[in-house]
Amino acid sequence: MDSVLLSELGIAGNMSGDNSSLDPGDVTVPLRNLRNSVQCVRDRVRDGESKECNDDFNLQQFWDTLGQAFKAASQGATKLSLVFSKPPLPSAQDCERLADSIEENVLTLATVYYWLPKSQGITLRRIARDATIEVLEGISQLIEVILNTPLQSLSQEQLTSTGGVWSSCDYIHRLPQDNQAAVLSVMASYSAVVKDAIEEMEQAQADNQDPFSDVLDDDDLDSRGNQDTYWSEEDKQLMAPCQGLMKAGKACLKKLSGAVKAHGKVDSPECIAQLDDLADITKEISPNVDDLALSLYPPMNYAGVRLNAARLASVVKKVLEITKSSHVCPEAELAWVQFLDVAVQHNMQKVKDLTQNSI
């Protein structure tokens, strides 16, 4: 095993275990050792830290080398799966050589990931880390499947696991290549969650005024006279500004994504850090939209609705504040920032007025 790779990962000792007394007929020993090694490297990638910065770092070279490492990992997984797909089984020594080769691929993959310094963007690094962990987890699962199934047969589970590794490795070609693209990627995922929450609430309102009609039996629907499962007129009045706040969160994500796409820069540490700040604060919009939406289902607790509305309003206003002071907000973008700020204040005031008696 390459001691330099081990040093890069902060892993000491021989992860392959002691195979000096290897039974010539026992191919499971190298497989178990390989599984343990992959899991060890996976955990180090998940919990480890890269360098803060690297003046000699070349981002394009990093992606080229990481792509080669992903390809090698995929090829190693394919060889492993093929060797154990039909008789005859390899000898224990041949299996050990294959395991050593795959372990080297795994260590190289992790080491290359660690080349990516934090100065290139925390958001970008998280995405690269998650993709690397996905590959390592896939290889670990493939080894586990091979160990737990007859060693001279190709099971559907082994086929699925092998395909999972291929898919994880191929995903390298769809990863964002810089922090601007990474931030746009995570914002798109936040927007999708917010969109779903708003549409679910609108659909519940449209379904015969009964948000629980799709989860109750006909007998329950016929016998139920409990108005706690319906929205009162007062409830509906309160829902309007709450939905206004939710839509403001959605609009904020959409407009900010456009601004990041148009004006986002990755040519200085300051700009990269500002993009990370935007990614971190916008992450808070979707869970707060969800919390507010859930509190709107009957029976409504007005104090709880008011609290959740205030939290969402605070988050959106914070996003607008950070946006306004960042490089993605030149004068041409100020109009929508100011418009949404007023909209949030207006809807929050309505919520306060309608829930005044609940506090």
From TrEMBL:
Keywords in alphabetical order: Cell cycle, Cytoplasm, Nucleus
Sections of the chain in a coiled coil: none
Subcellular location as annotated: Cytoplasm; Nucleus
Family named by the database record: Belongs to the CCNDBP1 family.
Cross-referenced InterPro entries: GCIP-like (IPR026907), GCIP-like_N (IPR049317), GCIP_C (IPR049318)
Domain Cyclin-D1-binding protein 1-like N-terminal: 66-206
Recorded superkingdom: Eukaryota
Species this protein is from: Acipenser oxyrinchus oxyrinchus
Chain residue ranges for the region called Disordered: 204-228
Pfam families the record matches: GCIP_C (PF20936), GCIP_N (PF13324)
Protein name stated in the entry: Cyclin D-type binding-protein 1
Domain Cyclin-D1-binding protein 1-like C-terminal: 216-321
GO cellular-component term (any): nucleus
